Amino acid sequence: MSVLEVAPSPPRRAWRSPAVRMGALAVLVCVVACADLFAGRGVTGEGVRAVLLGSGGDSMAEHIVLQLRLPRLLVALVAGASLGVAGLVLQSALRNPLAGPEVTGVTPGAVLGAVAATGLGLAGWDSPTAVVVAACLGGFAGAGLLWLLAGREKGDPEQTAVYGVLVSAVLAGLTAVVLLVAPGELGSVVQWLIGSTEGRVWQHWHLLWPWAAVWGAAAWLLSAPLTLLRCGDEQASAAGLDAGRGRAAALVCAVALTAGAVSAVGALGFVGLLVPHLALAVFGADLRITLPGAALLGAVVVCGADAAAQLLSRLLVVALDADRLTLPVGALTTFVGAGLLLVVARRRTDER
């Protein structure tokens, strides 16, 4: 018997190729994007198909599909991708699996900036540019405060995690104070705190995608230093990397990506925390591959959650006999993310 006869190539392992997994994720992105586009109210599935194919549809249907649903879909995809990449960058740079944007001062700072600007009348949901600027300033301020407190600890993940929780709590408290200054902005504050894709228009998309593309590319260029930082500062220094500078550059990218996403959709809970774990499980520790994978997974999670939230809203309207009821996508990501986090924590406890 020849060698070729006893050692056939196993075709079942083809799915393990990163290219195959990336292709499968790209297909999944298209699936959830179609689901999100067809899930909304006001236009039937046939109406959406007619508008997209250019084979008919009244002016109202065209407005809903092309001016409301399509930009909402695109913003959800890019915001999810930004949060997925930002979370992976933070966890790699700080060597902490719980270092999501939500607990490092980045997301609370961005929310505080947007809410404060809205409460003071400097910005609002109808002025996306001002909101983007305010959220970015707030996000960088929150990350800067964390850096001042923990920057001298040489990247100690435990100390950084403690300071991150404290900074996030302080910023969340300051956000609550905004209600005392401008109680009439309660609805806007709740939208920012929970996260919503409702009312996203083309202006949000035109502001978000160039920002996300630039900082996402910068994060990918840092994939090699980030991989070294995951191994520890000593190993990174032995390989010739300045750990302090590498970590600072990575944090700037993570803050910028998070601030851009928050400025568009508010604080989506647990996306930046859990998506990196899923990306590492699917693609492994090579961040040159895992960072794009985290972007696709984040897009799938947020867009899929948005489609599910719209479908649940329609069901709740019928069940409760309400005129209008909107389930924010951030409420769904927080609920599902918290449940998954509890399951993972319980499994690790049982394994010990």
Automatic annotation (TrEMBL):
Domain of life: Bacteria
Main location per the UniProt record: membrane
Topology of this chain in the membrane: Multi-pass membrane protein
The keyword rRNA processing is annotated on this UniProt entry: no
InterPro entries assigned to the protein according to its UniProt record, in alphabetical order: ABC_BtuC-like, ABC_transptr_permease_BtuC
Pfam families: FecCD
Family: Belongs to the binding-protein-dependent transport system permease family. FecCD subfamily.
Protein name as it appears in the record: Iron ABC transporter permease
Species for this entry: Streptomyces cyaneofuscatus
Lineage: Bacteria, Bacillati, Actinomycetota, Actinomycetes, Kitasatosporales
